[in-house]
Every structure is written in C-alpha cells, then in structure tokens.
Target: Probable manganese-dependent inorganic pyrophosphatase
Amino acid sequence: MSKELIFGHQNPDTDAIVAAKAFSYFENKMGADTEAVALGEPNEETQFVLDHFDEPALRVITKASDEVDSVMLVDHNEPQQSVSDIADVTVSHVVDHHRIAGFETAQPLFYRAEPLGCCSTVIYKLFQENDIEIPAKLAGLMLSAIISDTLLLKSPTTTETDVAVVKDLAKIADIDYETYGLAMLKAGTNLDSKSEKELIDADAKSFEMAGSTVRVAQINTVDLDDVFKRQAALEDAAKAENASDGYDLFLILATNILDSNSELLVVGGPTEPVEKAFGKTIANNRLSLPGVVSRKKQVVPQLTDAFNA
Model:
C-alpha cells in the first residue's frame, strides 16, 4: 500500500489543519498509510490551539507529486484552493462541507460531503460510524475546529449536529468549551502584529464566478475600527494581489466575532454583482453587512447567484 498525503486548503485555518490530522488518524486506524500535511503555516488562532494541546504543527508542502501518487482532501474540493500540482496526483478521498465546484476525477473515489458547520464534524461522524475511539487530545483539536468554523456555534452554518458534537467532544477532552472557545477566537484577532498582506492572506479563498476570479478574504476582529483604520493600506495590498495573481475582484470581509456583524471592503470589479448580492450600494468601497459572519453561507452563494444572473 502506497503512502498518501492528507491536507486541507491553502491558507489553512484551524479546521483545515485539524481535519487533516483527524482524518489521517482515522484512515490509519482503518489500515491506510497516510500523513497529514498542510499547505501553509498555522495562523495565530490555530497556533493557540496547537500550543494549548501541546500538538506539533504539520509539515508544510508546496507540491505533492514529488512524494506520492495519490492524496486525500479535507475541508475543500475546488482545485484552485488545493495544492499547486493537484492535477498531477490522484485524489482518492474527499471529506468536505463546502459546495462542489470545478472538481472531477478520472477514477471512482470516496467522497463524503455534508452541509454541516465544520469538516471536523463530518469526520467525527466517520469515527462514530466505524466505532473508533477519539483520543482526548484529538477531541480537543476537533472541538477547536468546530468552534472556529462556527464562531462558537453562533454562525448560521451551525447545525444541531455541530452543537451535539461539540458537547460530546468537550466531555472527551474534559474542557469548558465556552470559556476555552472565546479565548481561542480572541487569540486570532491580534491584528496589530500583522502586515496588510498577512491580514488578507491569512484566511482567503478564490472562486470562479461567471468568468470572473473572485478572492474573498475574512478577517475576524473584536473591533471593526481596528480593521478599517487601515483601509487605504488594505486596499493597496488587495490591488497588488489582483495585479500579481489575476484576481478580478478582491473582497475583504471584516467580522466582529462578539456581535456577529461584518463590513465588506470591495477592491476591483465588477462591483454591480456585489451590490445586487446584498441589495446595497457600495460607499467608500464598503458595504455594511449586519448579521453576516459566514463566507460559505452568507457571502459566496449570494455572490454566485448575482454573478450568474
């Protein structure tokens, strides 16, 4: 049996890192030979999680084909979000909770996707279905991933399954998930130590929409003013990436994790679909989006519909 690499998306968040670790542990228990790796360094929130549970960071790769013939994907399926040479390897497994777009394979594969708040919730179900025990440390990591993706179960992506799984994992890990979760989320909101490029690259994904390449970054904060006092510099950083990486439109979603409100910074074009998606007029390159916290559920589907209209 040949070794396979397991990884999440580029610019990995906590779920991308943890899901790779969790699914690798699961697959190895099922008899596979896998290694969890990452497509980037952990962000501050993820590093907080790893430090809290005394867990090492994953090895970072930029290519897979020079190591293995096949790979397993977690927390993503779209090729532009994956490893640079994804076309040169066989994808044998996918476990995800996002839309399916631009994905195809030449051979049958294992594909598990559910509309849950977190990929780690899907992986939890695989553990349960196969009667595999989740160790306490891994339970803490998976709990962290769900808290991260659902903003402590406040995001509209949160399902009853996510809530139940968080409570079960908290028992296994013996942790107060609410106190820990808030500390974890706040750890990821230290913006002053980051450059504008680091801020817009930390949690960003690219989407193809009706012939336009749309980059959507999300910045979590406890004060939106901390983000927008740097608006001009953020716009310059986004313009530079539009020019260098071929994005048509760069959207920066700044989200206050305490009151679940967001503000969108719009750089590039076309802008008409953005206004149509949210029923608002852009002013000073910004849109106020009260109650919006989820890129996956409250931003990307609306944009996709507006672009395709």
